[in-house]
Amino acid sequence: MGCAGSSPSKTEEATKKLQKPKPWKHPQALTMTELRRLRDEFWDTAPHYGGQKEIWDALQAAADADITLAQAIVDSAGVIVASADMTTCYDERGAKYELPKYVLSEPTNLIRDS
């Protein structure tokens, strides 16, 4: 416990509970194949945005996991979750990791491949 003006400790920030992303709509309807291509392209290039490759790997694993496992992954990797849907995260050194919604969930206007 701290005074009313104190900020949460890093431990409290790091244990922020993850939530499923809110429903969202892509500007144009995507097929599952197109969505997979976008995701693969993002994860292939993500380490070039800065930060540590190990954190990017942990974020990818968490994005592909169910919410309970995702929570365990980010906690064990020391990821500080700034937004509960994982769109903005930080590592312990303060590097920022921004994840687009399309790597975290499916859009509402997804077209299923036949």
UniProtKB/TrEMBL annotation:
Stretch list, region Disordered: 1-26
Where do the DC-UbP/UBTD2 N-terminal domain residues begin and end? Answer: 15-113
Against PANTHER family, the record matches this protein to: UBIQUITIN DOMAIN CONTAINING 1 PROTEIN-RELATED
Protein name (Swiss-Prot/TrEMBL): Ubiquitin domain-containing protein 1
- The organism named in the record is Iris pallida (Sweet iris)
